[in-house]
Amino acid sequence: MTIHNNFIAGEWLAGRSSADNVNPSDLSDVVGNYTLAGQDAVEQATDAASAAFEGWARVSPEVRADALDKIGTEILARREELGALLSREEGKILADGIGEVIRAGRVFKFFAAEALRLNGEKVTSVRPGVEVEVTREPEGVVGIITPWNFPIAIPAWKIAPALAYGNTVVFKPAGIVPASAWALADIISRAGLPEGVFNLVMGSGSEIGGAIVASPKVRAVTFTGSVATGRRIALDCVRTGKKVQLELGGKNPLIVLDDADLDVAVSVAVNGAYFATGQRCTASSRLIVQNGIHDRFVAAVIDRIGHLKIGHALDPGSEIGPVVSSDQLEQDISYIEVGKNGGAHLALGGEKLKRDRDGYYMSPALFTETTNDMRINREEIFGPVASVIRASTYEEAVQIANDTPFGLSSGICTTSLKYAHDFKRRSAAGMVMVNVPTAGVDYHVAFGGRKESSYGPREQGAYAREFYTVIKTAYTLP
Questions:
Q1: Which residues are catalytic?
Q2: Hey, what domains does the chain have and what are their CATH numbers?
Q3: What does pTM read for this prediction?
Q4: What is the average per-residue pLDDT within 15-35?
């Protein structure tokens, strides 16, 4: 089997060893074999990125725009192929895999245009005769560390702005989903970038990620992943004066008020909580339901998830695929026991499933009669598990929704403009949804949360420039 190597300084280089990438829908299906690098490869990559930075930072923005547009065009042209590859390695159903690839392509095209829109200011000084210019410049070498749940979209929305604004990149994808990252790197390698501008290093998170964060040549680090790892990265970056951007966990609330349209509320809840196997940081894991609609809502959700088809990601009839790995499956199952032992009622699901092909399948789980202080409502499970919490009033529902250490996404289902507008104002989350799932965002606007969910500037859209550029103020006396 061909070994897929790292991409460093314009060359495909082998690592110390390699490992198979296995399909979670069918454990007999090996997606590919991917190299595992050591810290020496990180040093090579950061050296190459550092050497390439000055030239890339000074090229015409049109050169950067053309390169990113070319990348986006190829991604979109290969959406079916890349979507199938993504679904094989990560486990989300094919429609979602293709949708994610389309999003990645559009992200590159968006930032191709943004490369030409980087504006500055010329202002009047308080001192007579002095001119003042405020401009943005690239930071330098950017270390990019991405998770497994969106293996092409998240790399895209970090790599594209980094390159658009003139930075160079050292990219480390999650170890269990290297195929999509490698395919993206292969496309980028043919876009005409100078050697060293983009580098891919695959391997252990603790070794490779740690070496990227520690490198004195890396000036900024953007990371999406667990809270614990993010905190360590933040501390290391602060110690060495690096800029840092973190997107971490979520325990996202969805309020369902008595006046909600029941069909809309059930659709929003099931989509947000269970689609993509619940493996989204924006998933609705706390369903806060007002008493008057509670019983009807719970019965309808149980009926809906009981009829969901759980199967192979490439099966056109599947609505939910497998969990990504054996470790993640065991974590999800362990939280089912945590919930039951903590006094919650398991209304449905929470079991390992057998299918025609051996894989990491789990039935979607719904807990009822829970309280907000239970562990299952405080900690991110990151699987197809949701809990229902009763609320007597709108005010109580808002209080429960905001009572969490996280603050990524939140939602409300209501037909009342009064409550909708009030919740948008009072929700302690970075993103608020009204009658739409908490999971699912646009690529041209800001993405990010509050509290333990995010740290540093927002991602995506024009707001990405806040992280990938630094402001310079220049004074001139003509």
A1: 247, 281
A2: 3-248+453-476 (3.40.605.10), 252-434 (3.40.309.10)
A3: 0.97
A4: 97
